[in-house]
Amino acid sequence: MGKLDIRRLGYACGAEVVGLDLRKRLDDEIIAEIKSAWLEHLVLCFRKQTLAPEEQVAFCGRFGELDDQRNSVRNRHPDYPAVQILSNKPLEVNEKMIGGNRFNFWHSDHAYTPRVQMAGFLHALVLPDIGGDTMFANQQMAYESLSPKMQSIVASLEGIQERSAGVNRAVNKDERFIPPTAQRLVQVFPETGRKTLYLGGYMRFFKGMTPGESKPILDFLSQHATRYEFIYRHRWAVGDLIMWNNRALMHYGVLDYDMTQRRLMQRCALVGPKIGIPYEIEPALAS
């Protein structure tokens, strides 16, 4: 019998793990149960946590290789490379200015890189009085609800994912150029055998197709993938730590709060398998 007290939070995905203090080193059996619950529910919430950066690194590192955030060093903690500080307003951390982040579009983190992030961990430190929710869309459900004919169509497609042009091409000593990446639109999880759509706001078009040809399919899939029955909306409380499956979900930071108030999060991520290859966009398609 499992040791964890797990309570579902949503129909599409989401569950709360009750009664754990993540500052303590958990035994291997508990970590294995958490991973199993993460694969099943895709989003796990641990409430009333007070994790310093090094404590969050220690917990998250139990699940795999931590990303050193080399692709987003502007928000990297100056003392802990595996930790990002996400703030809606600029913040000084040990004489380094960090923040100004508003990810209010559907996406999977770092989907534009060949070796994508497998899991994300977000810890709420400061929240506005009202709002600042995050929505998660279950892409396994989105795939499985497609007709067999559409499933066969999307199985043959590769999406071209690219970091936003303004960030990717800017001359900035803190950021490096990341070429566009081609990735299969349908991914399979080896742990479960389930298939998932893999798209989001970084996807520009499909390999072998023009943007104009790709747009109707992308528009349909984007609308389909974010239907309300696939979505869990998390209403944050200070101390929440959310662990989510970054390959089976898209997420959206909702700007439903007073922007004069601070929304401050502490983030870690696990490096996942290499699922994409660099892709050179033809000049005619680059604009």
Describe the structure.
- The chain is built from six helices and 18 strands.
- The protein is an alpha+beta fold and 287 residues long.
- The strands form five sheets. A seven-stranded mixed sheet has the order 1-2-3-15-7-17-4, with helices on one face. Strands 13-9-10-18 form a four-stranded antiparallel sheet. A three-stranded antiparallel sheet has the order 14-8-16.
- β5 (91-93) and β6 form a beta hairpin.
- The radius of gyration is 19 Å and the shape is globular.
Could you report the average pLDDT, rounded to the nearest whole number? Answer: 90
CATH class assignment: Alpha Beta
CATH fold call: Double-stranded beta-helix
| Unreliable residue stretches | 165-172
Number of helices: 6
Give the second-level CATH assignment, the architecture: 4-Layer Sandwich
Distance between the termini: 57 Å
Radius of gyration: 19 Å
Residue share in helix: 10-25%
Major β-sheet annotation: 7 strands, mixed
Strand residue percentage: 25-35%
Return the domain count: 1
SS-derived structural category: alpha+beta
Shape: globular
**N-to-C series of helices and strands:** EEHEHEEEEEHHEHEEEEHEEEEE
Q: Can you list the strand order of the major beta sheet?
A: 1-2-3-15-7-17-4
Which superfamily, in CATH terms, is the homologous superfamily?
Answer: Clavaminate synthase-like
Strand and helix layout:
Layout: E1 5-8, E2 15-18, H1 28-41, E3 43-46, H2 53-60, E4 84-87, E5 91-93, E6 96-98, E7 115-126, E8 134-138, H3 139-144, H4 148-154, E9 158-161, H5 165-168, E10 181-184, E11 186-188, E12 195-197, E13 203-206, H6 211-225, E14 231-234, E15 241-245, E16 249-253, E17 264-274, E18 276-278
Parallel strand pairs: 2-3
Antiparallel strand pairs: 1-2, 3-15, 4-17, 5-6, 7-15, 7-17, 8-14, 8-16, 9-10, 9-13, 10-18, 11-12
